[in-house]
Design a protein that fits this description.
globular
């Protein structure tokens, strides 16, 4: 087990986007699928830094 956690270079932006969009989904203002799409689109900050944002 690591003694501390490491965050990626754009994790603050991603975390803020997740929080905002999940709040919208939980309060019924937006479907969860749409909220996830918005967050995915906002990962452009990570891609702009040359990071791979795909899984697999």
């Amino acid at each position: 087990m690591l003694p501390y956690r490491l965050w990626g270079p754009a994790m603050n932006e991603t975390s803020k986007a997740l929080s905002a969009e999940f709040t919208k989904a939980l309060t019924g203002h937006t479907p969860l699928q749409s909220a996830l799409k918005v967050v995915d689109d906002q990962t452009a900050a990570m891609r702009g830094k040359g990071l791979d944002t795909t899984t697999g």
